[in-house]
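ping. complex inputs:
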Amino acid sequence: MLHVAIATRAFRRYSTYRAATLAGIFTNSVFGVIYSYAYLALWDANPTAGGYDAQDAVTYVWLGQALLMTIALWGGGSTDDLAERIRTGDVAIDLYRPVGLVGWYLASDLGRAAYHLLTRGFGPTLIGFLLFDIARPSSWLAAGAFAVSLVLAVVVSFAIRFLVAATAFWLLDQSGVKVMSGAFAIFFSGMMLPLVLFPGWLGTLARALPWASYVQVPADIWLGKHVGTDLAAALGFQLVWAVVLLAACRGVLRLATRKVVVQGG
Amino acid sequence: MAEHPATHVRTYGQIAWLWIRAAWQYPTSFVLLAVGNGLITGLDFVGLWIMFSHLRELAGFSLHEVALLYGSASLALAFADTAIGSVERIGTYIRTGRLDQMMTKPVPLLVQVCADQFTLRRLGRLTQAGVVFAWASTYVDWTPLRVLVAVSMLVSGCLVFFGLFVGFSCIQFWTTDATEFANAFTYGGATVTQYPLNIFPREVLVGLTFVVPVAFVNWYPCLFLLGRDDPSGMPDAFQLASPLAGLVTMAAALLVWRSGVRHYTSTGS
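pong. complex structure:
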């Protein structure tokens, strides 16, 4: 129940900034239009590139714009608060609380993600539907699976951002690591270019890394590229990364706690 | 305000140097930031390259032609962003009251805002853009006139981005939390310059010529460098008009800046 309360507070906190939200929806939509025309040109020259058709490609663009903030691709979200509290030393108070630190910040980030999905997710999608020929989920099953996949995407992304923030225990400042991690996230999530276009070993690698859970996996589920056992495997891929990375978060936190104690904070 | 502009440049340099030394207090972060930013733009180009592994031409343009477009715009953006990227944060300065502090100092406000939190993180992008541009320019059939156009393209491109960043950041004088609105025009403008502009419908191209004039950053002058006819049938004169576009954008931005500062009333704290 406590975690629900944390998530609700985070949701309400973000919903204060209405003008910022509108500006963000506008910006996402502008980028959606730019990438749509770029992909249309690409698929016009090669109509079957990566096993997508032009409609798949444009749908992919708008799904990406909708997911960008929801999964906090650039970093940020509740983990930025954590990094700041580590730098100032306030994290010591967090560690006193009778609640797990990872669970606390995860709940907060899920609240944020819910808000961003309802606004920055649905907003651009609506614009995309008005301007371009976008595919709807191929079935009710696909729609349901997409929803599950979305939650898993946020959890995987949270875990990676938590690990990045935790580097502040050693480096004091997370910004360098955050930029690096953002660069990898943009490239390997399929945000910049669908991973289905990545050739050879690069494609195999990209599809195995956790970042594939961010955009490529949910988008493929929406587009109906995964059916039957393949669908279960896609969700399982995300689930495995979520579990592994959350475990890593706890491990790193344990190491870091020892360091905090040594520092006497 | 009667000082020689060179004084302002020197003041700018001093403030910038201060911030570089400050950033160096976290050396690991400093290095990672530079490398990370180089990586972002580097991977950007890898993306284009991957795109071209699926096609020979994008809207009639080959990889090295697109690389010329990409490299030239990226260079201009990197210069502009290094010099004045901080202007985007003006909303924060207003909210925290720092703008009031700055106004009491005997240095022009724009100089202070632009130099504030100066960061060399864009060095990575600058290097990467330079390499791409150099590679792409080996495919250009150079003549003295083309060299001149190339140089004016880079300078004008800086001016256009400079103008866009300053101009659109001024929105924050009127609304403090709609920063991202500006991104659609600044970063959005930068993104469109990665592609041949004939992938867009003609109305969009007209907008990119007259409203957010990023088409002058690289598209028109690159058509000249490559000796190509304009696939969208815009007047040939546009290919040489970049300096004019740069100056107009810049002048408009300074006007907006001035009226923004006049409009500004402190948060009152």
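Chain A touches chain B at residues 17, 19-20, 22-24, 26-27, 30-31, 34, 37-38, 40-42, 44-46, 49-50, 171-177, 179-180, 182-184, 186-187, 192-193, 197-199, 202 (CB under 8 Å).
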